[in-house]
Recover the amino acids of this structure.
């Protein structure tokens, strides 16, 4: 017995859709640290994904509104962030994704980005989901750490209630006691009934609030979880990366060093191909 897979075409960006034989890779730094960093990572990832035959969307947040401590870096705000994301689109030539936190941000952000992302903590917020859906852009809804995978069909349904069918669902782990997450691989085929599914490799190894006022992480486990998800079957991967995670301004402990990305993505592409052979 196998679970049915959602097969209705979801438009992610120009000439990019799911389901597709080629994996979708959503990757970039956690937060927009600087224009040059974003350009450098986007350019490197575009080249890697091109060599491997993968679909690529650049990701970076203009505001990390849910940092553990008020002293943590959040970003330089929406206006500056959108300017940088527009430059990534223009100079590197790749689609871009960023988070929104308020319904009022949806239409403004949609003027620049190709994919609007709903943070996990906000995945039940009806007005936010409706505002994102109303833009007509693709909407990536992260599954809350507190949500059953079956309940994500209703989050997708809220977006589709606007007439927008372009919904992705992303698994990023479930709370397991304090300061820890686990991934139930059963959630992937469950959610894949409702929409294309992306596996968030790096947030799944995050240790929320476990590093003294900020989140820790165990990046050494990321490749194991990623390969397990590829074997189970997903449509894409969300992987935060940085040239030097040790100095990253957000989520450094769980990010994959940029120099290691091609090897990891090559392994994931091979496993993914087995499911589409």
């Amino acid at each position: 017995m196998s679970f049915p897979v959602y097969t209705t075409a979801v438009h992610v960006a120009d000439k990019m859709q799911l389901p597709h034989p080629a994996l979708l890779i959503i990757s970039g730094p956690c937060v927009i640290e600087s224009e040059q960093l974003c350009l450098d990572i986007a350019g490197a990832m575009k080249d890697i994904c091109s060599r491997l035959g993968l679909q690529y969307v650049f990701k970076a947040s203009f505001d990390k509104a849910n940092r553990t401590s008020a002293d943590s870096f959040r970003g330089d705000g929406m206006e500056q962030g959108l300017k940088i994301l527009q430059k990534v689109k223009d100079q590197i030539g790749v689609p871009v994704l960023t988070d929104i936190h308020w319904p009022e941000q949806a239409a403004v952000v949609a003027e620049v980005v190709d994919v609007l992302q709903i943070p996990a903590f906000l995945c039940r917020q009806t007005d936010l989901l409706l505002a994102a859906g109303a833009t007509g852009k693709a909407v990536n809804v992260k599954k809350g750490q507190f949500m059953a995978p079956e309940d994500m069909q209703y989050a997708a349904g809220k977006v589709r209630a606007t007439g927008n069918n372009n919904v992705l669902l992303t698994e990023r782990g479930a709370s397991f006691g304090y300061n820890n997450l686990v991934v139930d691989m059963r959630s992937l085929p469950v959610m894949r009934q409702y929409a294309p599914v992306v596996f968030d490799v790096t947030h799944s190894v995050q240790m929320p609030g476990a590093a003294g006022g900020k989140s820790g992480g165990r990046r050494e486990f990321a490749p194991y979880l990623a390969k397990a998800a590829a074997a189970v079957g997903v449509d894409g991967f969300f992987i935060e990366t940085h040239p030097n995670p040790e100095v990253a301004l957000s989520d450094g402990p769980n990010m994959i060093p940029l120099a290691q990305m091609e090897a990891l993505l090559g392994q994931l592409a091979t496993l993914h191909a087995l499911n589409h052979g």
